What we know:
It is a single chain. By secondary structure, this protein is α/β, with parallel strands linked by helices. It has a single domain (5-253), classed as 3-Layer(aba) Sandwich (Rossmann fold). It is built from seven helices and twelve strands. The protein has helices at 25-33, 47-51, 87-102, 112-120, 141-144, 162-167, 226-243, and strands spanning 5-14, 20-22, 36-42, 59-62, 107-110, 125-126, 153-157, 171-174, 181-182, 190-194, 200-204, 211-214. Strands 1, 2, 3, 4, 5, 7, 8, 10, 11 and 12 form a ten-stranded mixed β-sheet that branches. It starts with a strand and ends in a 13-residue tail after the last helix.
Amino acid sequence: MARQVVVGIxxxxxxxxxxxxxxxxxxxxxxxRAGAVPLGIPTLRDPEQAVAxxxxxxxxxxxxxxxxxxxxxxxxxxxxxxxxxxxxxxxxEAAVLRRALERDLPVLAICRGCQLLNVVRGGTLWQDIAxxxxxDPAHDGETAGTPRDQTVHPVALEPDxxxxxxxxxxxxxxxxxxxxxxxxxxxxxxxxxxSPDGLVEAVExxxxxxxLGIQCHPEELSxxxxxxxxxxxxxxxxxxxxxxxxxxxxxxxxxx
Length: 256
C-alpha cells in the first residue's frame, strides 16, 4: 500500500509566555479531509535547515500570517500602514518556497502565502489597501470583526485557468481577512482571479504543474463550501501524481 501524501506546512513564530511555533488547525484539518498528512516546517534561525524537510514532502502549503517585510520588495515600512513583519518567518518561507519551485512541488499559497509567492517572484505589495486607496477597505474583515468563515464578496476567475478547473467554478464567494494585497505581479505569475474592486485575488504559475496563490482563506470554508474542499483535494492529487511519477493533469481534465 502506498504511503499517504505528505504536505509540508510552515509554522510561524508567535510570542506568548515563551515564543511558540504554530499554525491554525483549520489548515491541517483541510489537508486531512483531502487525504494528506500535514508536516509542520518550523521557522528556523538557519532557513536552509528548514528546506531539508522538503525531502519528506510531496507538496507545500504556505498559510496566512503576518505581513511580508517590505524591504523584501524594495520598500521601507510605512508607519501609517500597520505593517507587522517577522523577518525570520520571511527568510524560512522564502527559502522553502524557492526550493519547492525548483523541484516543481505542488504549492498552495494562501493569503500571506500568496503575497510571499508574489514577492519571491519579484513582485510588490500594497502595504495597506485602505491607506493607499488600492481597493475596498472591507477586505480587512479581521479588523472589522467579520467571522472568519463568512463569505463577503465574489471573485471572478479566468475560465481557462488551472484554479477554475480545479474548483469547477468561474465565480466564487470568498471570506476576506487581509489588509495587504498584490500590486506589481511577479515573474511567471498569471492573474486568474479578481474581486469587484479590481484587487488581485488569485494567481498561478502556468509553467508549473500546480502552483496556486489565493488571497482568501479557503481553509475556513473547506468544510462547507465545495469549491474550497476541491482546492485542497486538487493540491493533494497533484502531490500524489508527482510522487507516483505521473505527468501533470491536463487543464481540461483537472477536477473531472
